[in-house]
Amino acid sequence: MTRRRLWVQLACIAITLFMGLPLYLITLAALSSRESLNQFPLSLLPTSLNGETMSTFLQSTGIVGGLINSLTIGLSTVLLSLLVGLPAGYAIARFAFRGRDPYQVGLLLTRALPIVVLSVPLGRIFLDTGLYDTTYGVTLLHTALALPTTILITSAIFLGVSREQEEAAMIFGASPFAAFARIVVPQALPGIAASAMFTFVLSWNEVLGASILTLNRRTLPAQVLATLADSPLAFRFAGGLALVVPALIFIAVARRYLLNMWGTTLR
Fold first, then answer.
1. Which tens digit of pLDDT belongs to each residue from 74-94?
2. Which of 28, 83, 88, 220 is spaced 20 to 30 Å from 19 by Cα?
């Protein structure tokens, strides 16, 4: 084993511990009894696991409603982002137009200003248009936040799809839309799926905008944040685990698609 390979493996182990140790401690605390959390010193091994804390947390007021709102907003954001972002990404990849590069840089400007700065004008606009405290309003906000990533990822994926195959399909009689649907989309599907999953996780984890723009229809992160200060320690760990689990499921499901996407982009 070369020295460079050894250092790479040591770095991978260190990063894994850095990412995995907090997750292990949160899971251990969330699945431990309240009495065991008050012991000193705390055991780093699962000695008294039970699901009472998680069960009580999930039955708390607003948690199930927040979960349904988060799923509704996340899936709606994915759908709306793909409907708008796919044509934009395809246009950037296939057509050379004046100002294309500055346009791609400009896409990122939507993320330059923090939500705190935009909260007052956003709240006023949503109040005037009747979108305040609705899942539709939060969906629009999350779509605006996710669109730059969706457009840039899909444009990179479309660049890796052979234009000659698309043109050959049109020579043999396929319409531009049929060539796109039957030639381009199947080859770009792993990247599109990865982009959709990125968007869903972004929407799931976004908390500040959802907290500002909703009162009674809060997402799960916003609901947890609103009740965090008044919750006992065990409930805080349970809330943290409930927020982390979807991201872990995303990583498990998206790993193969992400590798395919990077392979296509680097080709």
1. 889 999 999 999 989 888 888
2. 220
Q: What is the pLDDT of residue 261?
A: 54
Tokens of 29: 């605390």
- ω into residue 41 within 30 of 0, thus cis? yes
Tokens, residue 157: 């994926």
Per-residue pLDDT at 266 exceeds 60? no
Give dist(CA 149, CA 152) in Å, integer.
5
Residue 200 contacts residue 250 (beta carbons within 8 Å): yes
| pTM reported for the whole predicted model | 0.78
Cα–Cα nearest to 110, from 134, 80, 142, 132? 142
Tokens of 89: 């990404």
H helices present in 43-184, as ranges = 52-58, 63-94, 100-107, 115-129, 135-159, 163-171, 176-179
Residues 6+ apart with CB under 8 A from 187: 160, 161, 162, 264
What are φ and ψ of residue 60, in 5° steps? Answer: -70, 160
- Judge contact between 235 and 223, C-beta under 8 A: no
